[in-house]
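B., you asked whether I could sanity-check this one before it goes into the benchmark set. Here's the sequence:
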Amino acid sequence: MRISWITKAETQAVVYYGTSPGANSFSGTGKTSSYTYLIYKSGFIHHVVIGPLNPSTQYFYRCGGASSPPFNFTTPPPSLPIKFAIVGDLSYADMYQPYWDTFGNLVQSLAASRPWMVTQGNHEIERIPILHSNKFTAYNSRWVMPYQECNSSSNLYYSFDVAGVHVVMLGSYTDFGDNSDQYSWVSDDLNKVNRSKTPWIFVLLHAPWYNSNSAHQDEYESVAMKAAMEDLLYKARVDAVFSGHVHAYERFVRVYKDRADECGPLYITIGDGGNREGLAGTFVNPQPSISAFREASFGHGQLLIVNETHAHWTWHPNDDDVAVESDKIWLINRALVTSCS
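And here's what the prediction gave me:
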C-alpha cells in the first residue's frame, strides 16, 4: 500500500501504522519530491510504501510527525467477493496547479480511507509549448501508481491484482502503437494472467473506443488505440473495458470490431463523475444497435465481483435524493464461456 500526502513545510517521509487507534507498531519510510510549473512550486510530496499488510484488516496510520491527524483504512479481502467504485475523471486542474491542491483537500476524506487507482486523461497532459515542454508533470508527481511492480516502464500504464481480479490501467495519451513500450507491456501482461487463479480481467482507459455521444467523436486517441489494441483485449477474453472522457454514461453490449460479439468485452463509458465543463447531453441518433443504455447524468458505477463466474454492474446517477440503480447488468466471466475458449 502506498501512502501519499503533501505538506507545506519539509518533513520526514515516514508513516507510522498499526491495527489499533494510535498504534505505531510499524513504520515505513519513503521519498519526498516537489515540482515547479511556470511560477507555481508544489508543496513537499511524500510517497511511502507500507506493508506487508494482512487482508480484511483495519489499519490506523499517521503521516509524518506526531502532529499528523490519524487516518485509517481496511485492506481488501484475500478472495472474492469484492466491490469496486468506478468514476471519471480527475481534478480538471488544466494547468492551473492550485486546483490540484484544492482537489486533494476535497477528496482527502475518501482517498485517506480507501485505495485510489487512477489513470491519466487529456486534462492531465498540461504541456505548454516552449514554456513547459514536459507532459504529466503534476500527475506523475502526485499520483504514483505501482507501475514498477508490474514491470511497466511508465507511470501512465500499469496493472494490479486484488482478490482474484486483474485490473489493467492503460494510457490513452502516451504511445500505444504496436511498436510501443505500452503495447509490448500490455501484451505481456495479459498473457501472464492465469485465469484459474485470477478469473476476472478488467481494463480502464480514458478515451473510449466505442462512443455514440456527439462529444469526442473520431478522436485519434480513441480510433488509433482501438485499432492497435482491440485484438489484444479480445484474445485475452477481457471481461469489461471502462473509459472516461465523455461526460455522460453509456453501456454497450459485448463488442468486437464494431459488431456484437459474445466473446468480446463489455464497453462502458463513465466519464460523468463531475467536471467544470458540464454534461455531454447530445447523443448520435438513431442509437446504434450495439449501444444498450445511455444517459447524460452525473453519477458513479459499482462493480461487485460476486464469485469466479458472476459479477454485477450498477450505475447510480446523482439526480435523485435516494440511491437509484439507473442501469444494471450481470456479467458472466468470459474465460468460462465454452464458445469463447
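One thing to flag: The radius of gyration is 20 Å. Otherwise nothing jumped out at me.
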